[in-house]
Structure formats: C-alpha cells, structure tokens
C-alpha cells in the first residue's frame, strides 16, 4: 500500500471527463468495501453476522485491498501507458519512500499488541517487489500473475520444508525483528513465507491489480467483463479445490493423516481446517493441504478463487457508481481515506482492550462500521485529504523531488 492505494491517482493531462470520475469513484467504493470488510473481521463479530458472512470477508477483504493496491499503483504511474524517463524514476522514489513509511507504521501498530495482524508491513514489501515491474504491459503482468499463483505456493512449500519451522504462524514484521540475527531471520520467514500475509504468496494479487490498471477501466463494458472474469476465476479456484478434495480423494487423505494423531476427531479437525482455520500458509504435511481454498491458506486454488472475487467486486462497484451514485456516495467518500480508517480502527481496538471494554456485540460492530463513514463524509466536507494520506503524500513528494 503506497501512494497508489492511499490517495486518488492524478489525472493525466486533459483527462477530466465524467467517465474518469465514475471510474475513480468505483475504485474508491471497492476500497471502502475492502476496508470495512477488514474492520468487520477484526471486531470478531462472527456470532453477530454468522459464520458464513464472517468467513466470506475473512481473507478476501485484504485480498481485495491488495488487488486495488496494484490497480491504483498502475493508475498513478500512467494508467494504460506507463510513465517514462525521469517521471517514472520519480514515481519509483515516491513509492519506495512511502513503502518505508508504511513499514514503520505497520510495525508501530504491531507493537500495540492487539489481536489484529497488521497488513501494512507486507504491503510495503510488496510494493518494493513491484518497482521493477511498473513498465510491464497488462498482458505480461497478467501472465506472470497467473504463473506466480500456481508456482509461488509450490516454491513456498519447498522452502518451508527445507527451512526450520517457526514457533508461530500468522505473524508479521515487528521491531523485535531488529534486535538480533535470529529474530531478523524469523521476521523475514514470517514476512515472505508463513506469516498472515506472506509476500511470496501475495505477489499475484498485486500483479493482478496492476494488470487491470494497465488494461484500462475505461474500456467499454469493463464492469461486466470484470464481473464475468471474476466469476470464472472463482469457479475455477473454489470449484477446482472441491473437485480435488471431495471427488479425487484429497479430503480422505487428510482425514487419514490426521486420524493417526486424533482418530476420534479427524473429520472435524480437517473440516474446520478446510473452512475456517488458517494463518497465512497451508501445512506442509501432508501435501494435500495445498488443495484447500479457504481464507489465508495461500494455495493456488485460494489465490485464483479469491482473486476472482476481488475482480468481481471491483466490476460490481464500477457498475454501482453508475447505477446508484447517491446511494453509494458515502462509501465512495470513505474509500478516499483507507489508511486513516485502517489505522484508526486498530487504535480504537487497542484502546478498548486497554480499558477492558472490547466485547464483540451488535452495537460495537455497528459503531465500527458507521463511525468511519460519518467521519469520512464530515472530513471530506470540512477538511479535505485525510491526515495520514496527507502525510504520506508529503513523504512521497519529498522523495520524488516534487
């Protein structure tokens, strides 16, 4: 997450058409869905909204945000035609500097000790990884994204088998990783391989969004094309996982393996692991875990399926801002302040836990979802750019020499 994610990308010279405004509003709406989805998950309100709704957002909201990050990154560096020369060099300096700021901010939020696994650190690394890919065409980006979605988890599986296993899964970067060589190794292991948002697994989401930005949202029928493409990808991802597990024997192999340790609860354990419990990376033993598609497993099936959901949501948001602009207007406004809202909700969770007042309930969930919308509307009306977005803009512009 960088300049591309945290603010509306600048319009190319002469591009102030209503079509562009609608296109950007659609991106803002999708970003609001992603942010509020993460907020819902972090409040732990699964009893209030039900397991099915909770699981629908778990993992997929952050993936949608990653795809949007890549999309906005492409838009901010030229859209369909990437910047060249010194302008592109300035873009890269800006992105790198903002990534550094986000890494520090992410580690600071992690230091608060809340149950929220902070995504900002992994996003910062993702954008550094993407810097040499900015000039790629949408065809090349899409091809590499697809190949990485399949090969990346296999490479991660091999590395995780070869390297020592960490004591805990689902971690992210923290200041403690800079207190010694062993801690640094553990942190790198978490950031790249088996944390909640492992970079080697999440690169396809960023590239998917970048490909979309280079392809161009102004194309005729972009909304329904995205919805259709997303639907097909979801069927391939989730349907392929179902076939592999329930038709070709993957689930039976997992149950047989778990039964050696817990014979009475093997089916329950496997079912829960395949549908609910995952912390960023699938188990390496047995290999059939790679056939899952549940949130935060990081398998090829999850990458393709959840990536498809993200594309479908973006397409739907592009359509909604045309069909019912006034209805979705407040959410569009919220989507302009993603970093402020994200950091704000983590700070509120920390404060409530400190005061021993954090208890998932309908009133708390509604407050977490409604207050950010009200804040965004009022801030936009009376102030303008979000406070944290403004700060990152200054950092990026300074690094770029603007």
Automatic annotation (TrEMBL):
Record flagged with keyword Disulfide bond: no
Signal peptide: none
Parts of the chain that traverse the membrane: 29-49, 61-81, 101-129, 141-159, 191-212, 224-245, 303-325, 337-355, 361-380
Pfam families with a match to the protein in the record: DUF418, HGSNAT_cat
Start and end residues of each Heparan-alpha-glucosaminide N-acetyltransferase catalytic domain: 23-222
Keywords: Membrane, Transmembrane, Transmembrane helix
Residues of the DUF418 domain: 295-390
Family annotation (InterPro entries): DUF418, HGSNAT_cat
Protein name: Heparan-alpha-glucosaminide N-acetyltransferase domain-containing protein
């Amino acid at each position: 997450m960088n300049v591309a994610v945290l603010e509306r990308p600048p319009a190319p010279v002469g591009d102030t058409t209503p079509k562009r405004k609608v296109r950007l509003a659609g991106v803002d709406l999708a970003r609001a869905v992603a942010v509020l989805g993460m907020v819902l998950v972090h409040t732990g309100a699964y009893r209030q909204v039900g397991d099915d709704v909770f699981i629908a957002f778990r993992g997929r909201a952050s993936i949608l945000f990653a795809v949007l990050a890549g999309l906005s990154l492409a838009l901010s560096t030229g859209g369909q035609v990437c910047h060249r020369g010194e302008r592109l060099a300035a873009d890269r300096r800006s992105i790198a500097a903002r990534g550094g700021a986000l890494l520090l901010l992410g580690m600071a939020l992690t230091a608060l000790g809340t149950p929220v696994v902070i995504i900002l650190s992994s996003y910062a690394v993702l954008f550094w990884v993407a810097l040499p890919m900015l000039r790629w065409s949408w065809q090349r980006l899409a091809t590499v994204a697809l190949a990485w979605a399949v090969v990346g988890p296999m490479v991660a599986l091999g590395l995780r088998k070869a390297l020592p296993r960490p004591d805990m899964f689902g971690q992210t970067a923290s200041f403690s990783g800079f207190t010694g060589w062993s801690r640094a190794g553990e942190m790198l292991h978490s950031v790249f391989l088996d944390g909640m948002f492992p970079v080697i697994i999440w690169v396809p989401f960023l590239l998917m969004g970048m490909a979309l930005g280079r392809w161009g949202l102004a194309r005729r029928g972009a909304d329904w094309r995205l919805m259709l493409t997303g639907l097909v990808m979801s069927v391939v991802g989730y349907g392929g996982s179902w076939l592999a597990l329930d038709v070709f024997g993957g689930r039976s192999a997992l149950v047989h393996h778990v039964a050696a340790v817990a014979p009475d609860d093997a089916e329950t354990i496997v079912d829960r692991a395949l549908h609910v419990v995952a912390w960023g990376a699938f188990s390496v033993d047995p290999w059939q875990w790679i056939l899952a598609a549940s949130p935060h497993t990081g398998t090829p099936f999850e990458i393709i399926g959840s990536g498809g959901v993200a594309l479908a949501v973006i397409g739907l948001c592009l359509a909604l801002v045309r069909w019912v602009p006034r209805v979705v207007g407040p959410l569009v406004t919220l989507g302009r302040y993603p970093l402020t809202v994200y950091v704000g909700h983590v700070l509120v969770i920390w404060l409530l836990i400190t005061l021993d007042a954090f208890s998932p309930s309908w009133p708390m969930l509604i407050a977490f979802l409604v207050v950010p919308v009200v804040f965004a509307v009022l801030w936009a009306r009376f102030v303008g750019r979000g406070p944290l977005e403004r700060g990152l803009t200054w950092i990026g512009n300074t690094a770029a020499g603007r």
